[in-house]
Design brief:
about 375 residues
C-alpha cells in the first residue's frame, strides 16, 4: 500500500541533511560551478521523480511544493549549523557558494523557511490529494516567499556581499520566480465564498465604521503601521531630522547594518507595504470588497515573515553588538515591531471570522425572503 503523498514528501525531505553531508566530504564538488550544477540537478531530479511516480499531471503545483519542502530542510540545516547545534553539513556551501547565509538575517530566514514553509508545504500537499481547498495556505506561503526573496536577493546585491556573489547565488532565480507563478495561479482560481443570507449581508454593510469597534481598532492599527513604515523608510534614506538620527542610533541601529537586508526591507515597506495598507483600510471602510479575503492573507504572510527575520536578526548574536537593539530600548522597539506583524494577522482573523461585510453588495430590496419567493 502506497503511503500518503505528504508522508512520502516528508521522508524525501529528510534526505537533505544526508545529501549535504556527503557533498561536504567530497572535495571535487566543493567548487562554485559544481555546487550550482549539483543544486540544479537535485531540484530538477526531484521534480521529475515526483511528477513521474507520485503526482498526477493536473496538480502542477504539487511537485513544486514537494521540491520546495526539500529546500526547506536544507535551509533548516543551515540555521542549525550556523547556531552551533550541528556541524559538517553547510560549511562548504556557505564558504564557497553563498557567504551571506551566515548572517543573522539569513539564519532567521532559514528557520522560517525550514519550519513554517515546510509545514505549509505538507499541509498544501495534504489538501491537494484530498480534494480540499488549499488557496488560503498557498497565498500565505506566496506572500511570505515573495517578500523573503525580494529582501534576500536585493540585500545581497546592494549590501557588503554584493562584491562577492558566486555562481551558486543564481539558484535563487527559480525560487524568486516560482512564488509569482504560483500566486498568479492561485489568484486566478475562484474563491469558495461562505454561504451567508442576504439579510445578514445587508445588516453588516449598513453599519458605519464607528459602529464596528473591532474594524475601527484595526483601522487605527493599520494607520499606525503606515506611519511607522514611512518613518523607518525615511530613516534608512538618511533623513536629516534629529528624530531620525536619534532613532537609528539609540533604538534600531540594526537599520544601518552593512549587510543591506534591513535597508531593503524598510524600502519595501515604504514603496509596497504602504499602498497595500492604504487599500486594506479602504476595504474596512467600504463594504463589498471581497478581495480582502485573499489579499489580507497574502499580505499577512509577507509581513510576518519579514518581521520575524528583522526582529530576530536585530537581537541575534551573529549581528555585531553595535548594530543590535540596545538592552534599555528592547521593549519599545520589539513591541512596535511585533505590532507591525500582528496587525495584518489580526485583520485576517477578522475578515474570515465574519466575512459578511466583504461579500458583494446585495441589490436594494433583495432580501432573503424575496429570494425564497422567487
Amino acid at each position: 500500500m502506497r503511503p500518503p503523498v505528504e508522508v512520502t514528501v516528508f521522508l524525501l525531505s529528510l534526505l537533505a541533511p544526508g545529501v549535504l553531508y556527503t557533498i561536504n566530504n567530497i572535495p571535487a564538488l566543493q567548487e562554485p560551478l559544481p555546487i550550482l550544477g549539483m543544486a540544479m540537478v537535485v531540484l530538477g531530479s526531484g521534480i521529475l521523480l515526483l511528477s513521474m511516480c507520485f503526482i498526477p499531471l493536473p496538480l502542477c503545483l504539487c511537485p513544486v511544493f514537494a521540491v520546495l519542502s526539500f529546500s526547506s530542510m536544507v535551509a533548516l540545516t543551515n540555521a542549525l549549523e550556523q547556531d552551533g547545534f550541528i556541524s559538517g553539513f553547510m560549511s562548504f556551501y556557505v564558504k564557497i557558494g553563498e557567504p551571506h547565509l551566515s548572517t543573522a538575517y539569513a539564519v532567521m530566514m532559514s528557520y522560517w523557511e525550514g519550519i513554517v514553509h515546510f509545514v505549509l508545504f505538507l499541509c498544501i500537499i495534504h489538501h491537494m490529494f484530498r480534494g480540499k481547498s488549499y488557496r488560503s495556505l498557498g497565498l500565505l506561503w506566496a506572500g511570505s516567499s515573495i517578500a523573503h526573496q525580494i529582501v534576500l536577493i536585493s540585500g545581497v546585491v546592494i549590501g557588503k556581499y554584493g562584491s562577492n556573489i558566486r555562481p551558486a547565488f543564481l539558484r535563487n532565480i527559480p525560487f524568486f520566480l516560482v512564488p509569482f507563478w504560483a500566486s498568479f495561479l492561485l489568484f486566478s482560481r475562484p474563491r469558495g465564498m461562505p454561504v451567508i443570507t442576504a439579510d445578514k449581508i445587508v445588516a453588516e454593510q449598513n453599519k458605519s465604521l464607528l459602529s464596528r469597534p473591532v474594524d475601527l481598532l484595526l483601522s487605527l492599527l493599520l494607520v499606525g503601521a503606515m506611519a511607522f513604515s514611512v518613518f523607518r523608510g525615511f530613516v534608512v534614506l538618511d533623513c536629516p531630522l534629529d528624530m531620525s538620527f536619534t532613532y537609528i542610533y539609540q533604538y534600531e541601529p540594526y537599520l544601518k547594518d552593512p549587510v543591506g537586508f534591513p535597508r531593503i526591507m524598510m524600502l519595501m515597506y515604504l514603496f509596497y507595504a504602504l499602498p497595500l495598507l492604504a487599500f486594506l483600510i479602504y476595504g474596512l471602510k467600504i463594504p463589498g470588497c471581497s478581495w480582502m479575503l485573499d489579499w489580507t492573507i497574502f499580505f499577512a504572510g509577507a509581513m510576518t515573515q519579514t518581521q520575524w527575520c528583522h526582529i530576530g536578526a536585530s537581537l541575534h548574536s551573529r549581528t555585531p553588538f553595535t548594530y543590535r537593539v540596545p538592552a534599555d530600548k528592547w521593549w519599545p522597539v520589539i513591541t512596535l515591531n511585533v505590532l507591525l506583524a500582528a496587525a495584518p494577522a489580526l485583520l485576517v482573523l477578522r475578515c474570515h471570522a465574519n466575512p459578511a461585510y466583504f461579500m458583494k453588495p446585495v441589490p436594494k430590496g433583495q432580501t432573503n425572503d424575496e429570494k425564497k419567493k422567487n
